[in-house]
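Worked example 3 (structure in, sequence out).
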């Protein structure tokens, strides 16, 4: 079974997806980590085409069913912490606009999702990567709430995060390739004011009901 969770930054996708995978004993796929890996590689080699780096990159997302988030390795090097920096986050949003990058990573994601039970999260899982997913969820939340969550996570100023988030939302929604939007048939869930446990409970109930 495949559960696809999409939505903007700060909506709680990663936290919810990890918890849901643990609850259902599914394997968790963080597609954003793959784009961050390409962004990290691009920052290290700015003269090279991002799409070429994406095709060549050996990205490994370790993790057993029910365990949640594992280790992220790029070309056999652990980059789990390195890819979470603000600089890489900004670069990831930029490389994600590259059609060649998306094509390369979508192929890698589809290969991973072809076997087993998964909770996959990102911005185009239900629309592009796996439109056949048995359950598609689009998580959203009030912009201010999303910024507060992200600021708390990063230890940053909420106003600054909100400004950056607004630009990223506009960029992700307006990009030509795989724009951020709810997939046909997706259940939209506003997480504003809800705990992670409450969101996981609602999605788990939907999954059990299929």
């Amino acid at each position: 079974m495949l559960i696809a969770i999409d939505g903007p930054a700060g909506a709680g996708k990663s936290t919810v997806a990890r918890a849901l995978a643990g609850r259902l004993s599914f394997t968790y796929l963080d597609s954003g980590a793959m784009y961050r890996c390409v962004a990290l590689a691009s920052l290290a080699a700015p003269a090279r085409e991002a799409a070429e780096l994406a095709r060549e990159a050996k990205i490994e997302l370790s993790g057993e069913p029910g365990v949640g988030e594992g280790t992220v390795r790029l070309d056999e090097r652990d980059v789990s912490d390195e890819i979470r920096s603000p600089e890489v986050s900004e670069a990831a949003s930029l490389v994600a606009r590259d059609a060649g990058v998306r094509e390369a990573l979508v192929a890698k994601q589809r290969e991973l999702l072809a076997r087993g039970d998964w909770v996959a999260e990102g911005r185009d899982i239900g629309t592009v990567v796996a439109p056949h997913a048995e359950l598609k969820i689009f998580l959203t939340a009030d912009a201010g709430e999303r910024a507060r969550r992200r600021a708390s996570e990063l230890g940053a100023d909420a106003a600054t995060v909100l400004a950056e988030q607004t630009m990223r939302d506009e960029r992700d929604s307006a990009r030509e390739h795989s724009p951020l939007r709810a997939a046909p048939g997706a259940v939209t869930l506003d997480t504003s004011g809800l705990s992670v446990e409450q969101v996981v409970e609602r999605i788990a109930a939907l999954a059990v009901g299929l």
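Notes: The chain has a mean pLDDT of 91. The two ends are 10 Å apart (CA to CA).
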